[in-house]
Amino acid sequence: MHHILLVLLSAALSCATLLVDYTAPASVSALGSPQLQSAEGNFISASEGGSHGYIRTEKDEDGREALHFHRDPTYRRAEVLAKGSYAEGKRYFVGYEFKLSNVHQHLALFQWKKADKFSDPIQNIPFNIQFNLKEPTRPSVGYTPPGEKYRTIWTSPSPFSTDKTHNIALAWDTTMGSNNNKLQMWLDGESVLESDGLDLWTGYTYPKFGIYRGEEGDHDNGPHSNVFDSWIYKVQISDKSLDEIAESSGL
Asked: Which candidate, 172, 243, 212, places its Cα nearest to that of 75?
């Protein structure tokens, strides 16, 4: 009996270290705070989006439970700002299992977003995952050095498949002023990026998941016309190790 209690306590403590441990069909609040935004930039409450923009739990087309993100052309954002508190001097690990209906230039799947983008040094999005501006069917990772312009630091060599579920794993540092933070990424279990010499913390910053922008690209003619759906099955965030996000990372 004593041994069983120790095992249960160890498991409970392990789970408690996760900042986020989301599995559908849990409520969106288990992941964080939903954000819907119109193409004009107005934020809309979850109850006002109707069938045009929403984040809700329901089964995907294969019958699997998911957190479903939907955007009609009149929306630019359907995201969740992840719960939890994030800090300087940490190393964070994210596992993310999801599926997309379609892809488009500039559509972002993940953002590490600075809360006050105007505070010095200016750095709106230290890094994100989005579809490449020149190769719109290929995911890429972009980095914004403090006070400088956004730049792409990795692009997939092949197009992104919308016919299957994908796993993303991320690991990065938040040492302020070091210019020596490392960012790593794995896609479907394969290491695709390891980049150091980065600044990834210049003030309070947080992770966001979902579908942002991509409603219109440079190669489009005419008004916004893109409809997007994403299904998120599991998200885990740890400040301890990759092992803690194994269920969602694909590693």
From this structure: 212
pLDDT of 90-124, one tens digit each? 999 999 999 999 998 899 999 999 999 889 999 99
Taking the C-alpha atoms of residue 195 and residue 171, their distance in angstroms, rounded to an integer, is 11
CB 37 within 8 A of CB 83: no
Phi, psi of 225 (to 5 degrees): -145, 10
State residue 133 phi and psi, 5-degree precision. Answer: -70, -30
Helices vs. strands in the chain: H and E counts, helices first: 2, 16
- Banded pLDDT at 65 (limits 50, 70, 90): very high
The DSSP secondary-structure symbol of 95 reads E
Using DSSP, state whether 103 is helix, strand or coil.
coil
Segment 158-183 mean pLDDT: 94
Tokens of 231: 């299904």
Tens of pLDDT, residue by residue over 207-249, are 999 999 987 654 445 555 688 999 999 999 999 999 999 999 9
Residues in CB range of 132: below 8 A, 6 or more apart: 105, 138, 139, 140, 152, 155, 156
Strand-pairing partners, residue 98, are: 166, 232
Give residue 33's identity as a one-letter amino acid code. Answer: S
